[in-house]
Write a structure and sequence with these properties.
By secondary structure, the protein is α+β, with helices and mostly antiparallel strands. It contains 14 helices and 28 strands. The structure holds ligand 9MR (2 copies). The site of one ligand 9MR has 12 residues, from loops.
Length: about 750
């Protein structure tokens, strides 16, 4: 069991499922502790020079507390060590306090060369254990440690690592080659068996290239923590059964937007923790070169075409940074704003009790005592940026009313980089018909929602929306393409869907015949296009129009509204059929290839399922959504939660320029409630290509900051997470409601 190998200069990167923190001793030893008389040097691992030997092994120690061990689970402990004089090193995993029950012990021999030690063991105990290297009584050598990791060994049992809702389906997947059903047991935290049964054999799961079984323990409804499943010697990560998960997640998911605000200092108490505070980014303070007076890009694009620039500057401050980068893109802003406002409009339809969850004072943001619902305050921060991207009527230019596609750095900045440290020139990139229609749609939505809350803002939004619509008619062929350095492309060549979405929102808000004609002429009229398996994404937005027409009272006839609702329900049923055909309960079937941001495709489909639940009053849609969340929270082939802070092994190292602790410990880690883009079969970034070549679709993911094509985080992925979490919270708290058809 003791396998030894000699390491070179650089050891392995820290595994993200490591139960030991800071196993590479980056930036000091915290949260490790020491005892005894020693000096510490962390230039290369942790080197401890013992000044006074002591007599017992535990008189001098390097240790770490709070290591969550699970009885019955198997682990691998690894570390590298060396000593200036040969010594025998007591390594102990034990109870933190009397009687120091031992959970694992080894006594390897150290010498002057770095050696890696690997130990496998099965824990007989569940405890928050202490790991300690006991170096007392060994004389006064210098002993060094590095690359310390403790990982639970591969288990084929994949569960929602956070919690299952008590009254909903509870299904786990098991990757196992057996062709016959296997026995499973559900254990509670006291290690007693509370339920047992037989798996059903699902068979080959194409997207993961695995042979899968299903474990259904839905009948067990007792609230508690620390449950786990066992099949033979394999054991799952622990999980809870409780109602509160989504009450927390809905606000954590919304907090993403505050954290990523541009143009305002992120401060306590709103930041949740000191580590996430930072000065305002891009308010025209050096070294920033934006965003209060930004002019148009001039120069040559990637294809050699020259752009003349423009003779005006716009104030495009505020807004949310798109993602791991500091670009702000109107097109991606569009779907993100729509999703959060749709969440609000759904609550409006459900009534006062639902609206209360987003009321003033409900969220931890600076505007939470201004008399306006906090969800709207958050969205307004970005809406104002979008309005700022519209070419004003007074500008001495053509294309007034058109909207710039994006504002971003002239060149990609490196990582890490806090927004206020960004030294790059920022430019407006050419206006596009797509961005203009995105503003028309969301500003129309804005106008009806702020009506009665802030008349001036509602008016401003309506004027902007109608100006945008007119400008798009005047310039229908301004196509955005991915040709500029320094920012995401968000290129889109087919705009029928944007036209339909904008017309639908304008029609709902104004009731005007112009927009009625536009939607009636559209190929998307009253339909939901789910070709490719997904309902919508930033470049495919027709469904947004139909979902608004189905949800929000408007002048369509009852029959037409029934038609569009039937389309929503049919699409939802298609996603549920995909879910039932999946070995991991995924309500999204893109075929063999999983797209960039696949987790958001799943979440967006669940919005459609949620609205189908509202229109039918049928709670089975919520149950299906709950199972879809199980996939994101750990019931997946990688056995990990894609949502930070939720689950034993969860998103830790997103591609984000500020949450960059993985590459520099002076930067913060990731706040809870952030969803990663997830499996992406095309693995476009070099890190993923090196790690994942040949991956099965559902395994094309790596939790590393360099993997921008699988592990980035963005506004358009966290917004459906917030929507879905709030939806499930309604059901978890028993608020099932049928939304009857209302006509104006
Ligand atoms: O960081 C960028 C990320 O936000 C984008 O999604 C991605 C794809 O457009 O490209 C960026 O990643 C760049 C990285 O930060 C720096 N090296 C070049 C990468 C690709 O352009
Ligand atoms: O989400 C976008 C995805 O659909 C595209 O395939 C990809 C490449 O163009 O870009 C993604 O968007 C990124 C944007 O270009 C820059 N900021 C980060 C976004 C998420 O990775």
């Amino acid at each position: 069991m003791d396998d030894v190998q000699v390491l070179g200069e650089t050891g392995p990167a820290e595994p993200s499922s490591n139960l030991v923190q800071n196993g590479n001793f980056v930036g000091g030893i915290e949260p490790w502790w020491t005892s005894g008389d020693l000096s510490i040097d962390t230039a290369d691992g942790a080197c401890l020079t013992i000044n006074a030997a002591g007599s017992n092994p535990w008189d001098v120690q390097l240790g770490q507390h709070n290591i969550a061990l699970q009885a019955g689970a198997s682990y691998q402990l690894k570390f590298a060590a060396k000593s200036t004089t040969p010594v025998t090193l007591p390594v102990r995993l034990q109870q933190n306090g009397e009687p120091y029950t031992g959970y694992f012990a080894a006594d390897p021999r150290l010498n002057a060369a770095w050696t890696e030690f690997v130990f496998n063991f099965t824990s007989a105990y569940s405890d928050a254990a202490s790991l300690s290297f006991q170096i007392g009584g060994l004389g006064t050598p210098t002993i060094c440690f590095n690359h310390v990791s403790l990982e639970m060994l591969e288990t084929g049992i994949r569960v929602n690592q956070a919690s299952y809702l008590p009254t909903m389906s509870k299904v786990a997947s098991l990757a196992h080659p057996a062709n016959e059903p296997l026995s499973w047991e559900l254990h509670n935290a006291a290690d007693s068996v509370v339920l047992s049964g037989q798996t059903t054999v699902y068979g080959e799961e194409a997207a993961s290239a695995e042979h899968v079984h299903l474990i259904d323990f839905s009948s067990f409804q007792t609230v508690g923590e620390g449950y786990y499943l066992k099949v033979g010697s394999e054991q799952s990560y622990p999980f809870a059964i409780e109602d509160g998960l989504y009450s927390r997640l809905k606000y954590d998911a919304l907090a993403y937007f505050y954290h990523n605000r541009s143009g305002i200092a992120i401060t306590m108490p709103y930041a949740g923790d000191e580590q996430w505070t930072r000065p305002a980014g891009h308010i025209g303070v050096a070294p920033n070169q934006g965003d209060t007076a930004v002019t148009c890009f001039s120069g040559t694009d990637n294809q050699g075409q020259t752009w003349p620039g423009c003779d005006y500057e716009l104030d495009v401050s505020k807004g949310w940074y798109d993602a791991g980068d500091h670009g702000k893109y109107v097109v991606n802003s569009g779907i993100s704003v729509w999703t959060l406002l749709n969440q609000y409009e759904r609550a409006q339809q459900r009534g006062a009790e639902s609206l209360a969850q987003f009321a003033d004072g409900s969220m931890n943001i600076p505007e939470n005592a201004n008399g306006v619902p906090d969800l709207l305050d958050e969205v307004r921060w970005n809406m104002e940026f979008m309005l700022g991207m519209q070419i004003p009527p007074t500008a001495p230019v053509s294309k007034t009313g058109m909207v710039h596609h994006k504002v971003h750095d002239a060149q990609w900045t490196g990582l890490p980089m806090a927004p206020h440290d960004d030294p790059q020139m920022r430019y407006l990139y050419p206006p596009s018909t797509a961005a203009t229609l995105n503003l028309a749609a969301t500003a129309a939505q804005c106008s009806r929602i702020w009506r009665g809350i802030d008349e001036a803002f509602a008016d401003r939004c309506l004027v902007a929306a109608e100006r945008a619509w007119q400008a798009a008619l005047a310039y229908p062929n301004e196509i955005a393409r991915d040709i500029f350095a320094g920012g995401g492309g968000y290129g889109d060549t087919s705009l029928n869907d944007e036209w339909y979405w904008a017309a639908a929102e304008l029609y709902i808000t104004t009731g005007s015949a112009t927009y009625r004609e536009a939607i009636e002429e559209s190929p998307y009229y009253l339909k939901l296009d789910v070709s490719g398996g997904s309902a919508m994404y930033w470049g495919g937005v027709a469904s947004l129009g139909s979902l608004s027409l189905a949800l929000v009272p408007n002048n369509l006839s009852s029959a037409d509204r029934q038609t569009v609702r039937a389309a929503v329900i049919a699409a939802a049923d298609q996603f549920i059929a995909a879910q039932q055909a999946s070995g991991y309960g995924i309500p999204f079937d893109p075929g063999a290839e999983y797209p960039w941001g696949s987790n958001s495709s799943i979440l967006n489909n669940m919005i459609v399922m949620g609205l189908a639940g509202d229109f039918t009053g049928d709670a089975s849609y919520a149950d299906a959504i709950s199972q879809g969340m199980d996939y994101l929270l750990g019931r997946n082939p990688l056995n990990r939660s894609y949502i930070s802070g939720y689950g034993s092994v969860s998103l830790t190292n997103p591609h984000h320029r500020f949450w960059a602790k993985q590459i520099n410990p002076e930067y913060p880690g990731t706040p809870p409630g952030v969803v990663a883009g997830g499996p992406n079969s095309s693995i476009q970034d070099p890190y993923a290509q090196a790690e994942l070549t040949g991956c099965a679709a559902l395994k094309c993911y790596v939790d590393h900051i360099d993997s921008w094509s699988t592990n980035e985080v963005t506004i358009n992925w966290n917004s459906p997470l917030a929507w879905v979490a709030a939806y499930l919270d309604d059901y978890a708290t028993g608020s099932v409601q049928y939304l009857p058809l209302v006509t104006k």
